[in-house]
Structure formats: C-alpha cells, structure tokens
Amino acid sequence: MRARNRLSAKGAASLGAGKFADGGGLWLYKTNRISGKWVFRVTVHGKRREMGLGGFPDISLSEARKKADRARAIAQDGLDPIKEREKAKREAVRNLHMLSDVAIDAFEARKAELKGDGKAGRWFSPLELHVLPRLGKMPVSDIDQIDIRDTLSPIWHSKAETAKKALNRLSLCLKHGAALGLDVDLQAPEKARALLGKQRHEAKHIPAMPWADVPAFYHSLTDGTVTQLALRLLILTGVRSAPIRFAHLDQFEGNVWTIPADLVKGRKGMTTDFKVPLSQEARAVVQAAKLHERNGFLFPGTRKGVISDATMSKHMSDKGIDYRPHGFRSSFRDWTADTTNTPFEVAETAIGHTVGGSVERAYRRTDYLEQRRVLHERWAQYITGQSGQVVRSWGKN
C-alpha cells in the first residue's frame, strides 16, 4: 500500500499550481496558491475514475481525507463511488418539493459558476432574506404570480436592485424544480413582474466616508481583532475587500504586497499581479494580523476559510455607521485629489484602476510603484495623525 498523509495543512496552503498526492488516491489539484480542488483517483472495474471531493481551501485536508476514506471503502466493495454518490443525490431529489429545498439544491448546482463557490452569499442572500421567509415552506407547484407579487411588493421600489435579484433567483429555482420533474409554473415570475409594474428607483453609489472623517474612524479600530485589522489594512491600501480577505503570507515581501491577478478586479485587459507598496503603518498591521494567521491566510473566518464579504460591513453597521468599507477607496482617492498634487495616472493606479488604452499601456513600462509608495506613506501619516492635523474623536457627542 502506498504511503498516505503525505501533505500537511500548512504545506498544502503554501503550494503553487500543480497536482500533489496525499497518498491512497487522494490528490490536491491547485490552480494557484490560493485555490484548487481535492480529487480522489480510483480504479473500478478496470477503469480509472477521478472523483471531485470539493474545493480547496473550503474543504480542509482532514475533511478531504475523510471523504476519500468513504469513497475508498465503497470502491473496495466493488462499487463505483461516483455512481453511488449520484444515486444518493437522485434519491434525495425525490423528497425535494418545498421551495426552500429546491432553492438550496439550485444553489448547490450553481456553486461552480459563482465566484468563490458562492461563499460570499450574494447569490443566495436575496432569496434567504426576501423570498424564503414567506414562500420557503410552500410546495413549488403551488407558487403563482400572486404569491410572488405579494412577497416582493414591499421592496419592489424601495430596494429595487435587490428585488430584481430576488425575482431572478426565484425564476432560476422554479426552472430547477422543473428540471427535477416537478410541476411548476415557469411563467409565474414574469407574470408577477407585470403585476408589480415599473420600478421607481435611482441607483445610488456606495456611500463613502468623507476623507476628513477617516482618521477618527481609523483610531477607533484598536482591539486587534481580525475584522478591525482587516479594515485597517483596507483603509491604508485602498484595495477592494477580496484581496484583503484572501491576503496570504506568501504575498508579502518586505514593503510590497503582491496581489495575484485573479484577485484584482477592475483592471480590464491586465493579466499581471498588482503590487501595492506598504507604508510603515500597513506593515505594522500585517505583522499584527500574523497572530491570527491560519493556513497562511491573515484574516481567517471564525470556523474555516477566510472572513466573509459582509464581515467588515457588519462591523460598521453595528457601530451605526452608514458608510461602506468599499467606500474607503473613494475616501483615499478624494483625499489624493484634494490635498496632493499627485499626477492622475499615479492616483488612479494607486486604487487599482487601469489608465489609457492597450497601446498606451504597452509602451508605458512603469507601474509608478515608487511614486505610489510616497503617496501611501503620506496617506498613512494623515490617517494616523502624524501629519500634524487634528484627529477628532469618532462618534456622536
């Protein structure tokens, strides 16, 4: 028998792209340092099969080993573990008829299409918050346009985008129910849309904290928790929440943070990693975050994986703050424009935006790293009160 348990949890997290054997047929296929999938290789009736066991790092090494053990036991009985799993799924489907059950099954079927396997909850949350509380216990065959209209009418105008997403997700759930062989009215969502009428809504930008208020808020983040440290690094660097959430030890070297290209949004046409210069304050935050590190990730979730997309937003809303974490990018950009003479190209690059067309970018060989380093240091000095400006206390008097 081949040796098993060759991998370690920490070692698996540090591996780059490639295929790595744990032994006994369990393999880790990594597409990059951050993500991958677990695969169980088995030969059944003379034919080699590869059975997916879930994504990495959402499925831990110990969980993958347990799944592999169960599949191996099935194979040793002369059965195909993949077919047996599919058979179990079909048997479970027979009991699906409530909307809540169908919705969960539809979500599971679409996870692979969603960013991060839908872990952030954006796909499912419109259903969970605005549809399932009222319709979740109803058989999908009983749901009609009147039920849908009455469910969504309270938010149809006040939360227009959310309501549209909820209606879209509900439509997909009904189509999923039809694919399961259930008798559903596939036209019910469109008929409900006609009954609800045209929405009265103006799109609103994500609320951004005025840059003059940022130092006071930054000084309120003092307890050293994962959430507060993540917010501090987000404010200091001006990056989006995804790179913060998936910040990994091997991305940091000296005073530069290299964000993998697949975590950088909004840089159309760019396939290279994005380098962020770290101010002295940012390096101190990274050092403090290392105390919470798990599997190399600086901002781990409570039980597994990394903190969710809503964690930082919840901290702000719990404090009665109407602004959003993403808005700190605007705070940084507005401060840059209002208080410095930073060139446009440097300021835009500092928040991860691309500047100019593809031809212009091809001839421009710089990412303005040193100019951005000066800018980030000045921003850090401003929000920490080292620039000589008065820092007000956060909160109501």
From TrEMBL:
Molecular function terms, GO-annotated: DNA binding
Cited InterPro entries: DNA_brk_join_enz, Integrase-like_cat_sf, Integrase_catalytic, Integrase_DNA-bd_sf, Integrase_DNA_bind_dom, Integrase_recombinase_N, Phage_int_M, Phage_Integrase
Keywords attached to this entry: DNA integration, DNA recombination, DNA-binding
GO annotation, biological process: DNA integration; DNA recombination
Keyword flag DNA-binding: yes
Record domain Tyr recombinase: where: 204-376
CDD domains tied to this protein: INT_P4_C
Keyword DNA-binding: yes
Record PROSITE patterns: TYR_RECOMBINASE (PS51898)
Annotated Pfam families: Arm-DNA-bind_3, Phage_int_M
SUPFAM superfamilies, A to Z: DNA breaking-rejoining enzymes
Similarity remark: Belongs to the 'phage' integrase family.
Protein name: Integrase
